[in-house]
Specification:
The structure is a single chain. The model has no long low-confidence stretch (mean pLDDT 95). Strands 1-2-3-4-5 form a five-stranded mixed beta sheet, with helices on both faces. It is globular, with a radius of gyration of 14 Å. The chain is of the alpha/beta class. Helices cover 41% and strands 20% of the residues. The protein has five helices and five strands, in the order ββαβαβααβα. It has one domain: Transcription Regulator spoIIAA.
Length: 127
């Protein structure tokens, strides 16, 4: 799994590579958390392409299992990329995205700038 890290206004972000094995299980999430801790990352950025399509089908339980691991270990996560097609197909997913984007743990964002917007809202970075 190739990753890159960067500093976003003083917050260390670990960016997962877009290519690589799909993230589908709690074990996959735990592996990412371990990598983020090794890198001392405060935010884990996961490209949409890395998530197994079942993640976006809430009835499968994949999203719940993965998100629970991130919450348990208090890892902030940004799912980065266009999820329009999934949101258009599922009101439940649209509601989940809206609610999580109001919180401080999990965000669905289009790009790095939107990660910064969430960090600013939380007072973790300065304007």
């Amino acid at each position: 799994m190739m990753t890159a890290s960067y500093d976003l206004h003083g917050v260390h972000v670990l960016q997962c590579a877009a290519d690589g094995a799909p993230i589908r299980t709690a074990r996959d999430a735990t592996d990412l958390i371990s990598k983020a801790w090794e890198e001392r990352a405060q935010v884990l950025a996961i490209p949409v392409e890395r998530l197994d399509p079942d993640f976006f089908q809430l009835r499968t339980g994949v999203a719940g299992e993965i998100v629970q691991k991130f919450a348990t270990y208090k890892m902030r996560v940004a799912i980065v990329g266009d999820i329009t097609r999934y949101i258009d197909e599922s009101k439940s997913l649209r509601d989940l995205v809206r609610e999580t984007n109001r919180g401080d743990q999990l965000w669905f964002v289009a790009n790095r700038d939107e990660i910064a917007e969430h960090l600013l809202r939380l007072g973790l970075i300065q304007p």
